[in-house]
Design goal:
The complex is a heterodimer of chains A (364) and B (651). With 364 residues, chain A is mainly alpha-helical. Helices cover 75% and strands 0% of the residues of chain A. In chain A, helix 11 runs antiparallel to helix 12. The mean pLDDT of chain A is 92. Chain B has 651 residues and is of the alpha+beta class. Chain B is 30% helix and 16% strand. Chain B is built from 18 helices and 20 strands. Chain B has an eight-stranded mixed sheet with strand order 4-19-15-18-17-16-8-9, with helices on both faces. In chain B, strand 1, helix 1 and strand 2 form a beta-alpha-beta unit. The chains are: A mainly alpha (364), B alpha+beta (651). At the A-B interface, helix 7, helix 9, helix 11, helix 12 and helix 14 of A face helix 5 and helix 6 of B.
Chain lengths: 364, 651
């Protein structure tokens, strides 16, 4: 939704027209800014000032000074010192509504997300927070744009708090509760990468969850209802094979998709996997992968008459891992020849390949 | 149709001459963005107001209220032209009308009496008549020329630009089924989204790769590369292109060409088919996970009514049940059947179904040299909601079923395309649906056979798929051969039993067939590249006065399932009237910005840099649209190859 949207360049004439049309708005904006800065300098905390921040923030949500000022007002005139908790909670919930409206329009503005967190922490202090509602909100926002990394980060934040809250309610079942939540999150990443595997955030979240779920599964007696779902997490080797198989489809469909390769690199180098099984097993996996990628590269060559940049890079990557395992020379003649091809077909990253060729920069 | 056909409505029927569907002003709107006030349309909400025309003069007379004439009327009216828009029927819509069953009965009689030029062979079958087949005629709105709208199309952007969309309601259409090997493929849009390709277990990795390559080629390849490759194949069949360049297999090709591309013929050229396939794919995900929409309560009939209302707001005078009886090119005076005489300053634009008697000879002479094409239609109202074809069944109200060439036992040369709309789309009562099928087969006997055969296949599929039918039969057999046939075998017999069953029928409310004639080539080439030699709208009509070019004949609707080509055609006429189409609907509604934000739905379709709305262009060899629907395929050109766990990826 937010990706690949080309910037529309408007002509100088149109720009001028727009500027003229916007003169009123600009004047109002400047006046309001000056006024609010004055008010803030005089430590004015009034309902009027609060309303003015609303107007200004609706015009420009990136204005973090005004967000700060808004929070100062909230803390000064609404925050109860023995005063009515309900009123403050209501004000904060209104804030959340406003923030949500703004997030729909500006889903990538840091300050809006930041303000939302602040409101939630205030509600926590009042014991009035509703994490499940927040969870629904972020799920909806990720439906609108499933690659918005703000959304993903916020989701992790919410999930973490849901975990805390759930565990606090029933501390004796801590790990079972955590396992259930994490399995749900893992399944969520599955749906998201299936709908579009070009999603760094989803793969990243998945990579974070795998070791945690694995750990939990091996710490507790898994309840029967989860038995089927945790099967995959028996041992790191099974997980690895499962995940590699999943991205294999992606490699065939879109070898130039970097999110897949980035997950691939993680799978083949992270200690969680590499330390879990024997060198022989590891080498077998590497050789299998090399075969898959080489096959795709051959298909690409057939179609386009030249190597596929991403396949070739991954061939180099995988071969280097093999060489390292076998304690052989890393910069073999074969790898050098591949690097030379890359210099030709991927001139934008020529310098990096040249450095790798000279051994100045490592490959893995 | 061997079954009894009653082509005369019984004299005793309660058919009122003035019966019609509820108009959009009388209906309670079901969405919130429909405006509270829908402008009045003369002669529709208040049919008694039919006094003679009180105009003394006007700039343009438009005869016939079909879709293209209605768009034209609105465009001219908003540009400042004084338009008089008349229709000789007592209802709106002309050849794109949306009629009740009783209206349709009368229409069929009229067609067979030759009252509607370019329509013929009308048949209507209502089993049991009104007595045993209880139906309320006005619950049905049957489009004479049903169509579907792509989300990226010139008509949709015009609806938004002109604000006519606010009189209408749209429903998504995402179900496309293709008939293959004597069966309907379960899920047909498998090859249109990355998600479906990724998760489909039936496709091999190599096929997935090939499909993905094709999608990328259509949607994100640089335009010049795409054009160059298509050019190599240009007029060769699309089949060759897909096999040779993308190594696609028969079943994917069928889906791409006939279901996604909605092509009619096996010989469809690469150039045309690629544009058609692109139209579908770039329409996908504009407003959601669907490529098309249908307008609720009726298709072209509703939309033309919407444009007429818009024209009325801009000052157009409307009159129904009126014909032009004569025109004097010297004094420029037109005489009408209600006795009024009006001076026409500029032009008279005439629908081909409503040519005034005095112009019939010149119309015949002008169309003599034009190749004509037949569209044979079979419309069936069935007592089934057809949810079997709709996914998700709770919210979908329409589906497309396509029978590719040579897929039917009749060995059809042309594809049979079917639009299915059920009660949820407001065109018929709940629990029923309308099947609009048509073919471009030019051998009319064959065309009818193909349509009947396609109908039977759909009927059979419905019966087979209905829970209850087969178990019932199994019960009978079990009873019959109790003790001898083990239950397990009966289940195995399941599918063959379906053919063995006594022939049950899907219950029908009404079945209508007719043939429509048009001078528009099915590939729309003579719309996109119209000239006086190939298009009736470009031909000069002699009036007997030197250099006088006052009369323009319009086109009949094309065989195209979508609305493509209509705006292009209207603009040609518009330019002939005003000299240019630069100001076509160039209306500045004062409250533009705010209004658009308040009415979040529908959003403005994406427009490319040249301001042209993408998609919607078929056949004319105009491959200049360069829109890419970002969401179908996305490509991160991030070259950061550090292993995961690097946090900046998340920040």
């Amino acid at each position: 939704m937010q990706h690949n949207v080309k910037r529309v360049n408007i002509s100088a004439e149109l720009k001028k027209l727009k500027l003229e049309k916007d003169q009123l708005k600009i004047k109002r904006y400047q006046e309001l800014t000056a006024k609010l800065f004055d008010l803030r300098d005089n430590n004015t905390y009034t309902q009027d000032a609060f309303n003015e921040t609303t107007t200004l923030l609706l015009m420009n949500p990136e204005f973090y000074t005004v967000w700060n000022y808004r929070r100062e007002i909230l803390s000064n005139i609404y925050k109860p010192v023995g005063a009515n908790v309900d009123d403050y909670a209501q004000v904060l919930n209104d804030e959340l509504q406003l923030v949500l409206q703004q997030l729909k329009k500006f889903p990538k503005c840091y300050w809006i997300w930041n303000h939302r967190r602040w409101c939630l922490f205030e509600l926590v202090a009042l014991h009035r927070v509703n994490w499940m509602y927040e969870f629904a909100v972020v799920s909806k926002l990720l439906e609108l744009d499933q690659r918005n990394f703000h959304g993903w980060q916020y989701r992790r934040f919410i999930v973490e708090n849901i975990e805390k809250e759930s565990v606090a309610k029933d501390p004796s079942h801590e790990k079972v509760i955590l396992l259930k939540i994490k399995l749900d999150e893992f399944d969520y990443t599955t749906t998201k990468v299936q709908s579009d595997f070009s999603n760094f955030s989803a793969w990243h979240n998945r990579g974070n969850l795998i070791p945690k779920i694995y750990k939990l599964v091996h710490e507790i007696e898994v309840p029967a209802e989860f038995k089927e779902r945790v099967k995959l997490f028996d041992n790191p080797y099974d997980i690895l094979i499962h995940e590699l198989d999943m991205i294999k489809t992606g490699i065939y469909m879109s070898p130039e998709d970097t999110s897949i390769w980035s997950y691939y690199n993680w799978l083949l180098t992270d200690d969680f996997f590499t330390k879990a099984y024997s060198k022989e097993e590891y080498l077998k996996v590497l050789h299998n992968q090399l075969e898959v990628i080489s096959e795709v590269n051959e298909l690409e060559k057939e179609d386009n008459g030249q190597d596929n940049i991403w396949c070739l890079k991954s061939i180099i990557f995988t071969k280097t891992l093999i060489n390292k395992q076998q304690r052989g020379e890393v910069l073999t003649d074969e790898i050098k020849s591949y690097l030379k091809i890359l210099i030709k077909i991927d001139p934008l990253r020529k310098g990096k390949y040249e450095d790798q060729l000279r051994g100045v920069v490592g490959i893995v | 149709m061997a079954t009894p056909i009653s082509s005369t409505p019984t004299a005793t029927s309660s058919f009122s001459k003035r019966e019609r569907r509820q108009s959009m002003a009388e209906r309670r709107p079901s969405t919130s963005y429909t405006p509270a006030v829908i402008p009045h349309l003369a002669g529709l909400e208040t049919p008694q107001e039919m006094s003679p025309l009180k105009l003394e003069e006007c700039d343009v007379v438009i005869i016939g209220t079909g879709l293209s004439q209605s768009i034209l009327a609105a465009a001219l009216a908003w540009q400042g032209t004084q338009v008089l828009h008349i229709d000789n029927n007592h209802y709106y819509g002309d050849s794109s009308s949306c009629l009740t069953i009783d209206q349709l009965k009368k229409w069929c009689v009229d067609v067979n009496q030759g009252k509607f030029n370019h329509f013929k062979d009308a048949q209507i079958y209502i089993p049991g008549g009104k007595r045993s087949n209880k139906y309320t005629s006005r619950d049905y709105g049957i489009d004479l020329t049903p169509k579907i709208m792509f989300c990226q199309s010139d008509l949709l952007s015009l609806l938004i630009q002109s604000r006519v969309y606010r009189y209408l309601e749209f429903q998504s259409l995402a179900n496309f089924h293709v008939f293959e090997n004597d069966d309907f493929k379960q899920k047909i849009t498998n090859s249109t989204s990355k998600h479906d390709i990724f998760t489909d277990k039936t496709l091999s990795l190599i096929t997935k790769r090939n499909l993905m390559k094709f999608l990328k080629f259509i949607l994100i390849e640089e335009e010049h590369v795409r054009r160059a490759l298509v050019k190599q194949y240009s007029n060769r069949p699309i089949h060759e292109f897909l096999t040779q360049e993308f190594k696609l297999e028969e079943s994917q090709i069928n889906e791409l060409v006939y279901s996604i591309g909605l092509c009619n013929k096996q010989e469809t050229t690469t150039k045309e088919a690629v544009i058609r396939i692109r139209r579908f794919l770039s329409s996908f995900d504009c407003y959601g996970k669907f490529p098309c929409m249908t307008s609720k309560f009726g298709g072209p009939g509703e939309i033309s009514q919407g444009f007429c209302r818009s024209a009325a707001v801009a000052g157009t005078t409307y009159k129904l049940s009126t014909t032009m009886t004569d025109f004097d090119p010297v004094s420029k005076t037109a005489h009408f059947s209600d006795g009024s005489n009006i001076k026409v300053n500029e032009k008279i634009i005439i629908s081909p179904t409503q040519i005034p008697k005095f112009l019939v000879p010149s119309y015949q002479k002008l169309t003599e040299s034009l190749p004509s094409y037949y569209i044979t239609r079979l419309i069936t109202v069935v007592k089934r909601d057809c949810k079997e074809w709709m996914d998700p069944p709770q919210s979908a109200s329409a589906a497309i079923v396509v029978f590719p060439p040579h897929s039917l036992p009749t060995d059809n040369e042309s594809a049979v395309q079917v639009i299915i709309q059920n009660g949820d789309s407001g065109v018929c009562p709940e629990g029923q649906s309308i099947w609009y099928s048509h073919t471009c087969e030019q051998d009319l006997a064959r065309a009818k056979r193909d349509l009947e055969c396609a109908f039977e296949k759909m009927e059979m599929a419905l019966l087979r798929g209905t829970p209850g039918t087969i178990p019932d039969v199994l019960d009978d057999i079990d009873l019959f051969s109790a003790g001898t046939t083990p239950m397990a075998d009966s289940f195995k017999l399941g599918s063959s039993l379906a053919n063995f069953m006594p022939k049950e029928k899907v219950e029908i409310v009404c079945k209508v067939g007719y043939v429509q004639q048009t001078y528009i080539n099915p590939d729309l080439s003579n719309v996109f590249k119209a000239n006086p030699n190939n298009s009736i709208t470009c031909k000069k009509v002699p009036t007997g006065v030197d250099d006088e070019d006052m009369i323009i004949f319009g086109n009949m609707p094309s065989s195209e399932l979508s609305y493509d080509g209509i705006i292009t055609n209207v603009k040609q006429i518009y330019a002939r009237v005003t000299g240019t189409d630069d100001d076509f609907f160039d209306v500045d509604f004062e409250d533009d910005d705010e209004e658009m934000q308040d009415h979040q739905q529908p959003q403005q379709p994406q427009v490319n840099q040249s301001g042209q709305v993408l998609g919607g262009i078929v056949g004319g060899g105009r491959m200049d649209e360069d829109a890419i629907d970002e969401d179908v395929i996305e490509d991160d050109s991030d070259d950061d190859h550090k292993p995961f766990g690097v946090d900046q990826m998340e920040l």
